[in-house]
Amino acid sequence: MNRTVVALLRDNAGHAREFASRFDDVQNGQHPEAVTVCCSDSRVLQDHVFGNETPGRLFTCGNIGNRVIQRTAAGEVVSGDVLYPLEHTGTRTAVVVGHTGCGAVTATYGALTDDLDVGSEPPGIEHCVGLLGPQLEPGVALLPDGVDAGEAVNRLVEYNVDRQVEALLDSDDVPDDTDVVGVVYDFQDVYGGERGEVHVINVDGERDPETLRAASPEVADRIDRIWTY
């Protein structure tokens, strides 16, 4: 068998030994505390980001660009994988998790600035970039002159998280009492903390760091933005 799969199965055996007794309370149902919407990226370990080792605690979703929107015949709607725990498991916290150096945002930025021919990508990737494009295009227009590509991408990472939070808040399908939080996972030391830290940039549409720190002083050191617009 493929050596990578053999190694994965060996590691899974250790996981099974460690977790065998942790499923008793979730054998027949789940009531996760939060749904997290992360970018599909090998550097973003969704459960490990939050130190999660409890089955049933987090409902984790992942896709290119940590999007909450899918395109249907009826138009753009909140993606079913994000909506499911909000509709059916009593979950009332949604966390959109962007990350520094995001490849999806980089590709979308390239497409919007004519530095990338999206038509050369496979249809699945082209579709994902096409969903992000309309949301990020206003952000590209807001970028200050003189920022290099890396700076532009990390600013747009925040902008993208803001747009996903906004989409959840604006959706009639999302229960009104859902708390929606936008964060950025930083493994590039962009925010000046430890690599691997999560930084809160948006809470229920509020984006001003000082206002957010005043409201949540217990985590004031984890609230920050690199771009206000």
UniProtKB/TrEMBL annotation:
Family, as annotated: Belongs to the beta-class carbonic anhydrase family.
InterPro entries: Carbonic_anhydrase, Carbonic_anhydrase_sf
Native source organism of the sequence: Halobaculum lipolyticum
Enzyme class: lyase
Pfam families according to UniProt: Pro_CA (PF00484)
Superkingdom: Archaea
UniProt GO molecular function: carbonate dehydratase activity; metal ion binding
Binding residue positions for Zn(2+): 39, 99, 102
Keywords recorded for this protein, A-Z: Lyase, Metal-binding, Zinc
Entry's cofactor comment: Binds 1 zinc ion per subunit.
Cofactor(s) the record lists: Zn(2+)
Name of protein: carbonic anhydrase
Catalysed reactions, semicolon-separated: hydrogencarbonate + H(+) = CO2 + H2O
SMART domains: Pro_CA
EC number: 4.2.1.1
